[in-house]
Amino acid sequence: MSTGPDPQRLRDLALLRRVRDRMDREYAQPLDVEALARGVNMSAGHFSRQFKLAYGESPYSYLMTRRIERAMALLRLGDLSVTEICFAVGCSSLGTFSTRFTELVGVPPSTYRSQAAEETAGIPPCVAKQVTRPIRNREASVS
Q1: Regions in the chain scoring below 50 on pLDDT
Q2: Residues with Cβ < 8 Å from 120, sequence gap 6 or more?
Q3: Model's pTM, two decimal places?
Q4: Residue 82 to residues 38, 45, 78: CA-CA distances in angstroms?
């Protein structure tokens, strides 16, 4: 007979929410799972399992999605090169960035830039951001 939510689980969820908020704020910083876990006094394995249980994806996947979202916005602006955007959003490898971008968005960054310019012409940036946001369960299938 349960008397309510497990107090330890509630504490873990509060800590996970803090880490997720940190990833949302500091996506461009060099964040890794070990450092994020250490910040909330969890082992990397426990942190990763609990994060996936709470949010449906790994911490790394969540962080990469935030970075790709920001890259999409920067690509729509058109002021920076793909390489500059890669580093501006916190990725250290252009290859990994391009691969992950293509997996999430369905097209490479340079193709997205040219398509987005056409698709979002005349739409306010705040609306364009919402309608072009990558959604994890809508990932492009790998050919």
Answers
A1: 137-143
A2: 76, 128, 131, 132
A3: 0.76
A4: 32, 33, 9
